[in-house]
Amino acid sequence: MLERINKANDIKEIPESDLNLLAEEIRRFLIEKISVTGGHLASNLGVVELTIALHRVFDLPKDKIIWDVGHQSYTHKLLTGRKEEFDTLRMHGGISGFPKRKESICDSFDTGHSSTSISAGLGYARAREILGEDYKVISVIGDGSMTGGMAFEALNNTVGTKKNFIIILNDNNMSISRNVGGLSAHLSTMRTAEEYLELKETIKNSLNKIPGYGRKMVERIRKTKSGIKQMLLPGMIFENMGATYLGPYDGHNIPELVRAFKEASRVEGCVVVHVLTKKGKGYLPAERHPARFHGTGAFEIETGLPKSKRSKANYTDVFSTVMRKLGDRNEKIVAITAAMEDGVGLKRFHNMFPERFFDVGIAEGHAVTFAAGLAVAGLKPVLAVYSSFLQRGFDQMVHDVCIQNVPVVFAIDRAGLVGADGETHQGLFDLSYLTMMPNMTAMAPKNKWELSDMIKFAVDFPGPIAIRYPRGEAYDGCEEFRAPIVLGKSEVLYEEEDIALLAIGSMVKTAVEVREKLKEEGIPCSVINARFAKPIDGECMKRLCGKHSLIITMEENVQSGGFGEHVSEYIANFGLQAKVIHIALPDAYIEHGNVEQLKKEIGIDAESVFVRVRAEYRTMKKKRTTE
Known about the structure:
Strand order of the largest sheet: 7-6-8-9-11-10-15
Helix content: 40-55%
Number of strands: 17
Number of helices: 25
């Protein structure tokens, strides 16, 4: 069946009786391909039938399907003619793991972060009305994404939408970690479709038997806002917000979904179609461990086990271990995550101290202000979050944490380049936005031991403090350098003259490698581990400028507003004499690909930095000789 689909709408030529076979083929295809390339497996297996039904009912690219987050769009990509490109999934130069408008005209909106699809879809719907155009708009959002406040802001704003706007609630009881909170409990009451329908029918039949009044009572209940669904499904939150609610439907029954989507298409205004799916459907390891197969590397199909065994701990593992130990020592330490318990390494803390662990759902802004409240009340909150996702809590960091100068610890995982997930997930900006906030202290460790030391330092710190660390294997070099952490003080690893490599975080490893290459050519070089992006070590700057003519700042962050620019500003403000060169990420959104490959292309790998520094040094020496 899949061989017959080479472009959008080819699925309409497949007989209805063969659609379940197509679903099986798609699942096999996804399992086989993702077992090699890695990717988001469980979420995609859960929406195969849902996607098939969407493509049967709607006309692409005329109609607009907007996928929330977008990591569940693989079947959509297959049904729009991208089958032959799946061997390049999430690879440099290959197709993205998320919808991309420049990749296909059938991708209506670029996504990657959650809770955005209703807002984007509503924008399409209102633009369609203003421009007098005629097409359908369908926003697909998961129950996990519905824990994000932005989804409700958008839903509230759908009131007054005159023409059809479809919201499909893909309800699998999961975000990445299992869903939490009141909305999840509310949806659980709505999942009892069979019981609801039976009870409704019983009441209807009983009322109809009342002579003279029964039928009038049934009709009145049907027409009033507090109708039969209001009585039997507590809250009916969507209808209370002005949307028509349909469902719940079996998300793996294609004919039922097709009928539901056709019915939804006839509704004037906003309509929510509630669909029940199973994350990981059709592949037992993913069904049993949906969180592990949310985003997976290459794996063995037979067992679901990773193809490559990790020999060394990663930075998340180090954070996890230290947090568990600190939880034992200090009962005031509490941990917060935004639906990423496994991803950020807080599962062990949760298991050991369940009363001190908080998963707030996909709600980073709330997480930050919640942490501020905990801190003001006398606890020591540690908010663990991916760098890219913390951007969603920027306002709360400024207003609720830094203005009050309260002691919240931000453990920022996936800082810098993350690779295969691409632009929406690269952690390129945190040093820039952290260092612009008054009262904020920002740190980055050179290796696994320093991360441990920094976490211990941070939980005793009296104000807002952030530690950013990269994805992947923790660097275990430079073990011999472990000076105590002192606020705003850097660490000298190697001290010579002429050239100083002033690196922060992950770039310290690169700086050490560059120094080795320079030494092979007889070029003197100092290496300094900055440790703090804020405050800058002023005494170190003065000392470096006294012995070095060339200072190379090195960071895995955009140059604009980053660590290097703060160093240049300090040197200029104090009239110090040294040429400063910045090794940083470009002012651009960096697409998906292998991290080492991306570093080489950008020019921040050891070889590229060495070549640049050597050229600068030779120019400097030549100029001295001429003078």
